[in-house]
Amino acid sequence: MKDIDDTKQPLLEHLIELRRRLLWCLATLVLAFFVCFHYAHAIFAVLVQPLVHAGQGKLIYTDVFEAFFTQVKVAVFAALMLSFPVIAIQLWRFVAPGLYAKEKNAFLPFLLATPLFFAAGASFAYFLAMPWALHFLLSYQGNVGGIEQEALPGVGNYLNFVTHFLFGFGAAFLLPILLMILERAGIVTREQLARSRRYAIVAAAVVAGVLTPPDAVSMLLLMVPLDGLYEFAILAVRITHWRAARKAARSGVSMSTIVAEPQTEGGPEAPPGGGRVGGSGPI
After folding, report:
1. Mean pLDDT value across residues 193-214
2. What is the pLDDT of residues 90-135, one digit of tens each?
3. What pLDDT digit, counting tens, does each position of 142-164 carry?
4. Considering only Cβ atoms within 10 Å of each terminal Cβ, which end of the chain, N or C, has fewer?
5. Of 126, 232, 217, residue with least CA distance to 175
6. Rounded CA gap, 91 and 7, in Å?
7. Which is nearest to 81 in space by CA: 140, 126, 23?
């Protein structure tokens, strides 16, 4: 069995193959969009549950088309989520023929783990981060100097808030996979990751400021998990090296055992020259 698909193809065939994969991705995305558009109200009803649990019972829209375009955005958002596995598979089928078997075995676990880590980040945002952030942000309602201050979030603004949280936390939870790929490729080492903790904290603060709404609570809710995920990546790299070392040690023991076994009856007890490699007689 060949380690790599070494069939030569002209550039035009590669472009045709790329177009075919992209058309599959586009068709999947369009189909998922129409399905999700049909269920956009039900999907949005799920997305507003953190707001309901925070005590807010009203959403408004001030633009005539705002409610309709919000429904379209909900459909696009859900379609991207649903079609991601198909898009990832199509990209993998385009790239995989150019990889060696060892490279495929090394990269495939990261590809399979990507949707799981993204879903874990989105779930963390939906069930923990968003309720905490909404409770804090809605706590500013009340009487201020004799004037009643009331939160009346718009449907478009709230949808942007939700998508920022879900996509931001989902992408942030891919940090361990990114660091392990960089380490596997030799771009960074375990020691460099361990020495760069202080810079990682600053980078986590910057990423949290970009991916979350502009308030301190949201930033902290993403910054703290990012620091924890960085430590998790270092631990995962360390475990990977430890398992590789154990495997190499077991292989070494088995090889030495094979070498130390006595020769069969028909073979010589030692190579010519008393066991010296390349020798032909006594010293």
Report:
1. 87
2. 988 888 888 788 778 778 888 888 889 999 999 999 999 999 889 8
3. 888 888 888 889 999 999 999 98
4. N
5. 232
6. 19
7. 126
